[in-house]
Design brief:
Elements (H helix, E strand, L loop, with lengths): L1 H12 L3 H8 L16 H11 L3 H5 L7
């Protein structure tokens, strides 16, 4: 869910996950694994800030309706 939310917002902003990782000083592919393991608070805050959102928004489960 966390990775999915980051990816969705990144797509809306027109930025790649790799670019977020580079700009936030994260290891390549680290965000990809956020659905399996929770990142540290500072990493979550950095990515949320980069995307112009809050950590809470990244952690929320979004319901998708057709």
């Amino acid at each position: 869910m966390l990775y999915d939310n980051v990816k969705r917002i990144a797509n809306e902003k027109g930025v790649s996950i790799l670019q977020i990782e580079r700009d936030c000083g994260l290891k390549p592919s680290s965000i990809y694994h956020w659905n399996e393991s929770m990142p540290s608070g500072d990493k979550l805050v950095a990515v949320a800030s980069y995307l112009g959102t809050t950590p809470q928004d990244l952690l929320e489960e979004k319901s998708i309706t057709a």
